[in-house]
């Protein structure tokens, strides 16, 4: 692990109209050949807005070749033990932003960042935690494990899958935690090049001695890995409330069916003290409709992951292209992530929290 640091002057820390604040990169840590950590300097004036819980993420906005892109990155730092805010970005083989960050970010750069979000956090219980991470999925999981060990008496276990030894992020830090918290923390490394792809049996073996109702399970990694782990945990009878999933990749979305949205005539939106009714433009999401109506509707990741843009459909109906933020009960109550919600009834009324 190689670190470069400096003491740069702080950025002004003033949020722009979309809620993004320029945070200066104050240290760059090369974790592996394809992953880098950035320690971001949060100005004093923005400390409250950027306080976070282990497992949460920020959305960063970058401009590459004149085009703006937003991506979510979880904090790998643990708020219970460190005041720095650190994200860790792993190269996606053909990905745009992850490679750009790995190749270009140096100390002194500003990274436009929106405040932390997310529900992949520790429950307020004394349940032990069993965690599963694949590749870059270690980022929030490391924060959860570190925080659990440092700030609670709960025990933690980690099943950590990687392609090969070279790609293991935080290997030394995890070994340190195992040493410091002997008897409270155990890590099992799974390397595909030695052990084969993670099979359901390996997961079943790992949880065999688990006491499911008294354990919280946290899972983050590539989709096939998450699907395998989730299936085994559900088959083992893990209650839904104890199973916490964080998906980094957004499911492939079918294009909107024009006939479906063509039925909608108007949308009424309540945000704060304002209520506005506007004609609906076919194909637009509820978030786009709110913006066209001149409302400053909240939003962040715009992938259906963070839940910042959630609102309740109180009249009519809407369908979400992707939802990785709301649970089934909330959806039943009419909550939608508006960045992904297309109205499907002639009249729709939406109320922001
Ligand atoms: C809540 C959350 C937290 C996250 N936390 C982290 C984290 O801590 N660390 C981390 O490294 N990542 C994290 N991610 C993932 C991260 O946000 C990015 O998705 C990731 O870095 C890839 O972005 P990219 O721009 O490099 O790839 P993109 O350019 O978005 O491409 C992603 C993949 O899609 C493929 N692709 C792109 N365009 C097309 C197309 N038109 N057709 C077919 N395929 C295409 C690319 O080949 C690539 O494989 C998180 C995601 C979420 C939702």
UniProtKB/TrEMBL annotation:
UniProtKB keywords: 2Fe-2S, FAD, Flavoprotein, Iron, Iron-sulfur, Metal-binding, Oxidoreductase
Cross-referenced Pfam families: FAD_binding_6 (PF00970), Fer2 (PF00111), NAD_binding_1 (PF00175)
Co-factor requirement: FAD
Protein name per the record: Ferredoxin
Domain of life of the source: Bacteria
Gene Ontology MF terms in the entry: 2 iron, 2 sulfur cluster binding; flavin adenine dinucleotide binding; metal ion binding; oxidoreductase activity
Lineage: Bacteria, Bacillati, Actinomycetota, Actinomycetes, Mycobacteriales
């Amino acid at each position: 692990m190689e670190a470069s640091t400096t003491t740069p002057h702080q950025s002004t820390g003033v949020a722009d109209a979309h809620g993004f604040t320029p945070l200066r990169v104050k240290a760059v840590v090369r974790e592996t050949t394809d992953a880098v950590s950035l320690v971001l300097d949060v100005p004093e004036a923005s400390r409250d807005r950027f306080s976070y819980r282990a497992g949460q993420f920020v959305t960063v906005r970058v401009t590459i070749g004149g085009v703006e892109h937003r991506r979510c990155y979880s904090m790998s730092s643990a708020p219970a033990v460190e005041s720095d805010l650190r994200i860790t970005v792993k190269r996606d083989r053909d990905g745009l932003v992850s490679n750009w960050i790995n190749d270009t970010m140096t100390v002194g750069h500003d990274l436009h960042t929106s405040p932390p979000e997310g529900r992949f956090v520790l429950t307020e219980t004394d349940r032990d935690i069993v965690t599963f991470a694949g590749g870059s999925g270690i980022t929030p999981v490391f924060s959860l494990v570190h925080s659990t060990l440092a700030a609670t008496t709960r025990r933690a276990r980690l099943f950590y899958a990687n392609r090969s030894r070279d790609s293991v992020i935080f290997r030394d830090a995890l070994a340190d935690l195992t040493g410091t918290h002997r008897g409270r923390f155990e890590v099992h490394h799974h390397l595909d090049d030695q052990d084969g792809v993670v099979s359901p049996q390996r997961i079943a073996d790992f949880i065999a001695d688990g006491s499911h109702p008294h354990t919280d399970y946290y899972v983050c990694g590539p989709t096939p890995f998450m699907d395998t782990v989730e299936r085994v945990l559900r088959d083992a009878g893990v209650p839904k409330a104890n199973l916490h999933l964080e998906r980094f990749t957004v499911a492939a979305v079918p294009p909107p069916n024009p006939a479906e949205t063509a039925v909608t005539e108007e949308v009424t939106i309540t945000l704060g003290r304002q209520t506005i009714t506007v004609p609906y433009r076919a194909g637009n999401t509820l978030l786009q409709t709110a913006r066209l109506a001149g409302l400053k509707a909240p939003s962040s990741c715009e992938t259906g992951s963070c839940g910042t843009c959630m609102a309740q459909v109180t009249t009519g109906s809407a369908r979400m292209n992707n939802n990785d933020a709301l649970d089934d009960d909330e959806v039943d109550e009419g909550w939608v992530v508006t960045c992904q919600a297309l109205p499907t009834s002639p009249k729709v009324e939406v109320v922001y929290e």
